[in-house]
Amino acid sequence: FPGEPSPSETDIIQVSIRLPANEPIRRRFRRTDSAKLLFEFAWTNPNVPDQFELLWGYPRR
Questions:
Q1: Domain total in the chain
Q2: In what residue span(s) does the UBX domain sit (predicted)?
């Protein structure tokens, strides 16, 4: 799994994933990183269920 980009890098985004227990996990990604990397990051957390969806857009409409 690639390392997290430093805060001083350009073209990075901060992603927050809210877990079922309402606990957020956060990480910086490069704008060029794939969605697959987001899923792989989520799976590294032991509190993420075996099956899940990643939704974007806040607030949800």
A1: 1
A2: 8-61
Domain that holds residue 31: 1-47
Question: What pLDDT sits at residue 19?
Answer: 86
Res 56 pLDDT > 80: no
Is residue 56, in this structure, part of any structural domain at all? no
Note the pTM of the prediction, 2 decimals. Answer: 0.78
Is residue 61, in this structure, part of any structural domain at all? no
Dihedral sign computed on CA atoms, order 39, 40, 42, 46 = positive
Output the CA angle 44-17-38, nearest 5 degrees. 55
Contact of 12 with 32, CB cutoff 8 Å: no
